[in-house]
Specification:
Rossmann fold, 4-stranded parallel beta sheet, 21 helices, disordered N terminus, disordered C terminus
């Protein structure tokens, strides 16, 4: 054995690093513990007069991976040019690497600075070339064993998932694992609900479904002292909960195939688990979140409490600008003003209107001219139409809506695959745009399916005039809620545009929102999904509001 830079072998003690590694790998059927490796390496060093100057150990990391902190630190120190050691001692070549590229890079890098790698349990003969050949053969065998083991493990995990068992990993808040079956030493796990945690998840989705913003929900949970398994709630972990599909009663096992590739969405294995949130609510919440994404809706519109920001428009001929807010008397008064007149100083015939006056006028008009029982029945006459022609039309629409839901679900799954494989990043604008578009469209199709099924009287959700009246009462109550953010959210669900001119104020909105809400027995906020639909509009004699009267 030749040492590096320390004189003859008999005069100076050889210095060495020891490297230990433990993962799920086994040597000849027996796992070699860190302590067993340490004991054997120390005994070898003592017998051969070698001084171990530092020990490096990685636990729970595969030899196929280059991302091993202790291993990388050892290689860096050993090759930094200061000649700290002559030898790296390992228990077996497989402890160093089970990846041929990593094996060659490591050995070559160490050899370049005169550091020899010694496996204390393997004899590779004498001579540099003979030793290198033996080490290479051993490393090749170790790599193939790792590949074979990985294939076997993947097959076993996929079969375990097909049988409905949980393969491990982080457990979603609201669930815990339990041993559902034992096959010899193998414990097969499943998920079950933790009632106390599930109640928190349900409350979070209820608030989100009502239109409560993330900051409000986080603040309320922390104010109540509710924790996420001991941690405070934050916007980040709340977002994780609201986007976790597991709560709908299924999670997808994405164990890699025999070639180590993440499977396509159609090959994911759906593993059932107890549901905490029903699918329609989950879709509504995520569509609503997507519609509030800052890339889609300006933060001052999504998070502000000004009721008509973004939907109030100037109605003067040739203008059509947005109405903006201006204040006076130190902020005591606020007015809706044509943005063109404010920003460019151009003349505009639309007068300024006190904020409270216009807000109250729009709220009152919606309640009286849209949600009044008789008017609501007129607007929703199609929902009550049970003719054969309408039934055939709705059945065709139902088929198309189901197909659209499948398309959008697949598109979302493919986006997640692209993110997991590194083809696109979660902060990539294209990823964010496509994700919110698909989530919004998925929510729209899911809601449309529920609406059509109710109209076809599938199940127990038959629509009657009394159902419509009850829906109008519930929606009126939401519009008068004490929370201004919630009032704004429900009004904007019903109203898509408020056009103000010097002669009249016109209020319009999509009928689909009313149809979807009444068919689902309760008003629900929806994401801003493009809906190519006839709009409701108050009756002609109530549509014209003289501004002098409006301001009284």
């Amino acid at each position: 054995m030749m040492k590096h830079g320390r004189g003859s072998k008999g005069t100076v003690k050889m210095r060495a690093y020891s490297y230990l590694r433990l993962s799920v790998d086994k040597e000849e059927g027996k796992a070699q513990s860190i302590e067993a490796q340490r004991h054997a390496i120390k005994a070898y060093a003592l017998k051969n007069g070698i001084e171990i100057v530092e020990e490096f150990a990685d636990t729970g990391l595969s030899g196929q991976s280059a991302k091993r902190p202790a291993f990388n630190r050892m290689i860096e120190q050993a090759t930094d040019g200061t000649n700290p050691v002559d030898i790296v001692l390992i228990y077996r070549i497989a402890r160093l690497a089970r990846n041929m590229r990593l094996f060659f890079n490591s050995l070559d890098g160490l050899a370049d600075v005169g550091v020899e790698v010694i496996s204390i349990t393997e004899n590779f003969g004498e001579g540099r070339r003979t030793k290198r050949m033996g080490q290479t053969i051993s490393a090749m065998v170790a790599e193939q064993q790792a590949i074979d083991s990985s294939i076997y493990t993947s097959k076993s995990r996929r079969e375990n998932a097909r049988q409905g068992f949980y393969n491990g990993g982080p457990v979603a808040f609201g669930y815990e694992t339990y041993v559902a079956r034992k096959d010899g030493d193998k414990e097969r796990m499943k998920l079950r609900v933790v009632p106390a945690e599930a109640a928190v998840v349900d409350q979070i989705f209820e608030w989100a479904d009502m239109g409560r913003g993330g900051r409000w929900i986080v603040g309320e949970l922390n104010r109540r002292g509710t924790t996420l398994r001991g941690a405070k709630f934050s916007n980040g972990n709340l977002s994780g909960i609201l986007s976790r599909v597991t709560y709908t009663g299924v999670y997808y096992d994405k164990t890699v195939d025999d070639d180590g590739n993440v499977p396509d969405p159609e090959d994911w294995i759906a593993v059932p688990c107890p549901a905490i949130i029903d699918q329609p609510r989950f879709d509504r919440v995520n569509a609503l979140r997507a519609s509030r994404n800052p890339r889609r809706t300006a933060p001052h519109i999504a998070a502000g409490t000004t009721m008509l920001t973004g939907i109030a428009k100037c109605g003067t001929a040739g203008c059509s600008c947005a109405m903006t807010i201006r204040t006076g008397k130190g902020g005591r008064y606020s007015y809706y003003v044509c943005a063109n007149r404010v920003n460019k100083g151009q003349a505009c015939g639309t007068p300024s209107i006190p904020r409270k006056v216009l807000d109250d006028l729009v709220l009152g008009s919606v309640e009286k001219q849209v949600l009044a029982p008789e008017r609501l029945r007129t607007l929703l006459s199609d929902v009550l139409d049970l003719s054969d022609q309408k039934r055939v039309q709705r059945e065709a629409e139902l088929t198309e809506a189901r197909a659209e839901k499948t398309r959008r679900s697949t598109a979302i799954e493919r986006l997640f695959i692209a993110m997991e494989t590194g083809n696109i990043g979660p902060r990539d604008p294209i990823f964010a745009k496509r994700m919110e578009e698909n989530r919004s469209a998925l929510a729209a199709s899911t809601t449309r399916i529920a609406t059509l099924e109710a109209q076809l009287a599938k199940g127990s959700r038959k629509i009657t005039p009394s159902t419509i009246s009850r829906f109008g009462d519930l929606l009126s109550a939401r519009l008068r809620d004490d929370d201004p953010a919630l009032r704004k959210a429900y009004l904007r669900m019903l109203v898509s545009k408020v056009t103000v001119s010097n002669k009249q104020i016109t209020i319009t909105g999509p009928k689909a929102v009313l149809e979807n809400g009444v068919c689902n027995d309760a008003p629900h906020l929806m994401g801003m999904v493009p809906i190519f639909d006839r709009e409701w509009c108050p009756e002609e004699d109530s549509n014209l509001h003289d501004l002098a009267i409006a301001s009284t």
